[in-house]
Amino acid sequence: MIFSESLKKNQDFQRVYRAADSRANRYLVLYRLENGLSKNRIGISVSKKVGNSVVRHHMCRLIRESYRLNEKSLKPGYDLVVVVRPLAKSRSYREIESALLHLMKLQNLVQELSSENKDEKNLNRND
To answer: Coiled-coil stretches, from where to where (predicted)?
Structure first.
């Protein structure tokens, strides 16, 4: 993750849960809190209700990769916490990525791309 750090401490997660704005869909919940920094920090929470450790780690990797591939299009300066819901465990990467992007758009985290960036993004997808 080029522009981001991970949230690791319980107190950071608790601060985001208490004061943040949240949005949810069938598979994920996204909490967003301004952090006053020039970068985003992301934390991922997968409870034991989702599955065993292999399943939980797999979901964490899917979320992290979805975020990494789309972080250039996000506004900086937020602490984000993604909570995985139990329905997500049987979903594909594309469905998880779509759910994450949906929540990011609802939270107004996606910035408009300039025409140069759109052309570059289209070229990268065609490779």
So the answer is: 96-126
Burial of residue 46 (number of CB atoms within 10 Å: 0-12, 13-18, 19+): buried
Tally of structural domains, the chain: 1
Q: How far apart are CA 34 and CA 77, in angstroms?
A: 6
Tell me the per-residue pLDDT of 17-44, one tens digit each, with 9 for 90 and over: 998 889 999 999 999 999 888 889 999 9
3-state secondary structure of 46: strand
What residues make up the domain containing 35? Answer: 4-126
The Cα–Cα gap between 92 and 16 comes to: 28
pLDDT band at 49 (very low <50, low <70, confident <90, very high): very high
Q: How many CB atoms lie within 10 A of CB 47?
A: 11
Q: Hey, is 26 helix, strand or coil?
A: coil
Q: What is the pTM of this model?
A: 0.82
Amino acid in the structure at residue 20 = A
CATH of the domain at 78: 3.30.230.10
